[in-house]
User: Fold these one by one.
Assistant:
Number 1:
Amino acid sequence: MKTYTNPVYPYVRSPDQDGAPRHHPVIVVGAGPVGLAAAIDLAQRKVPVLVLDEEDTVSIGSRAICYAKRALEILDRLGCAEPIVSKGVRWNVGKVFHRNELVYQFDLQPETGHCHPAFVNLQQYHLEECLVHRLQQLPAASVRWKNKVIGLDVHDQQVTVRVACPDGEYSASCDWLIAADGARSPVRTMLGLESEGQVFRDRFLIADIHMQSDFPTERWFWFDPPFHPNQSVLLHRQADDVWRIDFQLGCEADPDEEKKPERILPRLRAMLGADAQFEIEWASVYTFQCRRMPRFRKGRVLFVGDAAHLVSPFGARGANSGFQDTDNLVWKLDLVMKGLAPERLLDTFDSERCAAADENLLNSTRSTDFITPKSAVSRTFRDAVLGLAKRHPFARRLVNSGRLSLPYVHVESPLNTSDRPGETFEGAMVPGAPAVDSPVTAPDAEWLLAYLGKVFTLLVFGDGVPAKDEAALASAPLSCSVLRVGGRRGITDTTGLLTRRYDGKPGTCYLFRPDQIVCARWRSFDASAVSAAIVRASACERQP
């Protein structure tokens, strides 16, 4: 690639290779985006974590490029969103074309008052470099390059791994192992576990090209364009004037042939014009699957990201759901390891993220069926919908070029506390929903989410919490901080957005989990109700 040179991280002989096998609290297998995010989160919570990766560099090729607002908010909490957003390309608007006509366009973030855009596009290798740099800043974390896990034994109290490296082989053990080792997950294979779902035969060509262009920073998707008839094409801008173009090829395409420049260049010329100046950076041909493991927990092994679930690339649901996996998992694992919550709390990682994976799989499968109709009847329906969508808004809801990633709302979670009888709320901030950011005026940060995400947090509109109750919440084993909106020592809602988004009448309280998800809400403060909701949200109380 002309715009990027992969770093090479040094292999270093580890203490585990000399003497008796050493024990680690947590081992993460895989230094991709999801594994690195898990390790950073653990290390920020002062949990010692070791990352093992069989390579010595970041991603080869751009691979995942679209990071949604919720993923950026998680990365913010991990201390690495700023360089990612600064380097990446922000976008909110998408356009859908049928043949050579614009069918309609959409804005994924039509309202103001959000710290991050709907999406940022950035090549995966840049993102991974940012994550590696952040990990290296944290004393509780270490990463071993060229260390390949080749065997493991799962016991009741620990996991033992066998690792191959340039100096030979060694063993190490851990209390918990996080498998973030990708779609082909060797850890999953070693445990004899399977994924279930659908494998699609359609082939797609990714061509990353370096090009100076005045195309706007938007997502453009074509159905049956004149430059690539009977197929679909997707265009995205990335950093460094690199453009991602996806060409649908059909299931009979030969992947080895289609990756050759003499096959790629005519497609690009037909799309961009004979006079366009560009260079091919990277190309790949792929098929995809919509599958997941039946369970994301196997004893002391926890599966995240592509190791746990696979979706089509339409909708940018892969890496974005992987970040949400680790965001859901790590605070729970931290409480369990500190003896503040029972192991059954980790079962809610499995149930919550399996439900989220099912939603992603459903949306991903529907997108694929619309983009690649499997029969003449399906194609006729698809084309009729596209024809209607240009003039009739009702049809636009049926157009599916990839339902773009949104965070899952865990409305059925057993960790939620139901609203009290007679109390009503407007808006989307129901128990199970991730917090929506809002601008605030305060000494430490200018956005609400900067104050959420370390411990349980009670957001209070006004001065409804007595000082003695605030002190009791802060000093409890499951610590809870109080964040006031207005009143004494509070943050200021200068724009009014925070109050509107949370229907924040005076006295209203929202309880957030450490992953910034609402788990309870009340119209007035009640110390016993808050304590009971924290107990419920940490699975310290057995559910009926």
Note: The mean pLDDT is 94.
Number 2:
Amino acid sequence: MRKTLFLTTLATSLATSVAAQTAAATPATLRLTVDAAVTMALEHNLDLNADRLDPQISDTRVAAAAGAFRPSVNSSVNSNNQLLPPTSLLFPIATQTDVVTTNAGVSQKLPWYGTSYTVGWTTAHTDSNSFLNSYNPLLQSGLSLSVSQPLIRDLRVDQNRTQLATSRTNRDIADTRLRESLVRTTASVKAAYWNLVSAVATVDARRSALELSQELVRVNKAKVDVGSSPPLDLVSAQAEVAANQEQLIIAETAVKQAEDRLRVLIVDGTVRENWSVKIEAIDSPPIATPSIDVEGAVTKAIAERSDLARGRKDIDNSQTALLYADNQRLPDVRLNASYQASGLGGTQVLRTGGFPGTIVGPGAVTDFGSVLGQLFAHDYPTWAVGVSVNYPLGESPDRAGFARARIERSQAAERLKSTETKAVQQVRDAAWKIEMNAKRIETTRAARSLAEQRLDAERKRFEVGMSTSFLVIQAQRDLAQAKNNELGAVLAYDLSLVDFEALQQAPPAGASGSASAAAGGR
């Protein structure tokens, strides 16, 4: 009884272990619709994740340009110790002077009208044995305010405001590039998906051709065995089987390659486990002919295409540069105004007799608060107002810069026109391809149906001895080619739909990057 229980437990454990090993060895299958594949790509595509960082980088450039208008605070503390030798009758002994100076200030360039200002506050504490000083220690404080206002040049626009406007426009351009990357990624995923669907259908067609050729081998072998057919017919049929086996191997490899191309687009390829997941495309390719609104598609492309949006933003940048260059040709006339207030205090030195007198001791003390009071009471103010003019004589670099900016503005406008013309042509061309490939599906489907009828007729004639093995093999080849042509037409139609949709939102990535090019060689 114990032995039986042990054997039962052992068998159960072995069965569980074998099942677990089998499950581990069998790769998981990911069943995908085309929309699910696009969603996965938008979440996991590595190139797209990198492109999403471009607008953030542009944000930092905008912040850096805007930083030119933020206030700047400065401060310093300095201590100076000086010992002068007795150099004259006024200084019969060495003069010791200790000065501690503190400075603090704020400066800013305003984002309006080119105005800039500086506010500064200075204090100094001086301790000296010089008998010429009226205060010892001496307290000094000063408050200053200066404003510079351009009146002609740099009034409407200056270099910093131009840089800020350009960086903001470039930020919008970064958005168009990201949108373009999204459109191209979506188109690439759809193209890869339909290529996988077509590759799987090609495997089925090649397997069907192989089965037909194997059936002919069985029939010919039976006939050769009874002597009703020459051995050459069997050899020809066997050669056809070998050729179809080769085509099936190639088609099966193409499926693996198509899976990998789709896998790279929709999952993180750095995770090794993702490469062992089998992808099963469950959507059938669309083959119904849609109604193509060419004029509506052209209108949408002109309004929404990312390259046209970039072209308009390039015109904005060139217009900003033109305004700045035009402004720099004007004379630099500035209104400069400044105000300074001073305060003085400390311990007064009392003297008797004539000049320079004899120091008899300390006098009244003016504290630091009183010194600050002198500043804000405007006891010792100094005002200054002036106008400065700077205008170069002769031909200046600013004039050449304006001429260049004007030409670049015209160039940007012409490039936009050229891009718009190409966009219209590309959208119309994609629409004509949809119509062409829809008609190709009809003709290739009819050709495949006729090839099936011909093969059926040849097989019946062959069975009654009215046809030859060569004609049956030729009919099988014609049917395989007809099926391949039909699959190619369906794939070309699906990819032309992908191109037509994408070209309304973004330009083609290039001959090798378009969805139509992805069908090359098929």
Note: The first strand starts at residue 29 and ends at 32.
